[in-house]
Amino acid sequence: MKYRQLGDSDLQVSEISLGSWLTYSGGVEREQAAACVEKAFEVGINFIDTANVYGKGASETFLGEVLQNRPRDSYVLATKLFFPMTETDSGLSRVQIHKQLNDSLKRLKTNYVDLYQCHRYDENTPLEETMIALSEVVQEGKARYIGFSEWNAAQIKAAAQITGVEKFVSSQPQYSMLWREPEAEVFPVCAANGIGQIVWSPLGQGVLTGKYRAGQPIPKDSRAANDLMNVFIGRLLNDEILNAVEKLKPLAAAENLSMAQLALAWVLRDERVSSAIIGASRPAQIADNAAASGIELSAQTLTAIDEILNPVLAPVK
Ligand SMILES: NC(=O)c1ccc[n+]([C@@H]2O[C@H](COP(=O)([O-])OP(=O)(O)OC[C@H]3O[C@@H](n4cnc5c(N)ncnc54)[C@H](OP(=O)(O)O)[C@@H]3O)[C@@H](O)[C@H]2O)c1
User: Fold this and answer.
1) Hey, what CATH topology would domain 3-312 get?
2) Ligand 1, pocket residues at CB < 6 Å
3) How far does Cα 146 stand from its chain's mean position?
């Protein structure tokens, strides 16, 4: 496993990191989820991403339990806030930042997270209030660094211009061969401000592994077949996309890679990406995905990928 620096922080994060969204908030049975975390450490993953809202605390509680016996400095732990935890608890106000982080730390059974992220931008709270409160939790030692997820370029610039507060070091956008929108504005503005990318759904929720095929039944053991986890995958399961993905298979084979490795090596080809946050429903997937670290795709393969996928990409803004 190779490691990259996360933006201007001193965090060294594994190129492949482990997320816990649909999988470890209840979608994957507990024993198997614990085996996945175990496997992640075995293959050199040191970076784990969660959020208070994943299973309304369930993902953090699970991680708090399975990480408890590992030295706290042997892994980099990231969580987030913003989405509603109750009818009255949501957003990025000062009160919420202190309250939600305290609750997350209790569930995670730790006194600090390495990275505290704003899950979305809060239109209802002044940005200054959010940045001051984030700085307070850093000063209190409860968060080492701060980041955001899915903020736009103007919002990122506005935060960078506020003086006397902690600076963001990480951005968490959706990014994959099938979703390239952040390349246009978010990646450049972040690079100019010492902010690294930790990208979500790099496998298109599994679609880029080639397991779903146009006109074929959905595999029974897949996310798309699981009612606890198939809430967001639908938009990627159309025949046009699936037929294009099918055409990537000979490219992966020619590079001696699995389809998952091709997709992950593709996001990691950009050095502004510090880590690809994968989800995994079983340990073998983690071993497969971790092996993408350090792989460099040939210029020929990169061009061929674009030729195949360009017709099905959403227009980049
Ligand atoms: N900030 C945000 O708003 C946001 C949004 C979404 C996600 N995230 C973060 O990003 C993480 C990853 O998201 P994601 O789970 O959608 O990522 P993903 O890596 O694109 O998809 C993960 C799913 O693909 C399948 N898979 C993974 N490796 C495979 C392999 N080698 N071979 C075959 N199938 C494989 C598994 O599903 P099955 O085996 O069940 O088919 C797995 O659960 C989340 O856990 C979360 O931490 C953040």
Assistant:
1) TIM Barrel (3.20.20)
2) 19-21, 23, 49, 149-150, 172, 200-206, 209, 211, 222-223, 260, 277-281, 285, 288-289
3) 15
Question: Catalytic site residue 75?
Answer: no
Q: What is the pLDDT of residue 220?
A: 97
- Residue type for position 75: Y
Task: Give me the torsion for CA of 265, 270, 272, 275, rounded to 10°.
Answer: 0
Residue type, 103: D
Residue type for position 65: E
Strands 76-81 and 143-148: unpaired
Q: List, for residues 78-95, the tens digit of each pLDDT value.
A: 999 999 999 999 999 999
For the chain, residues with pLDDT lower than 50 are: 316-317
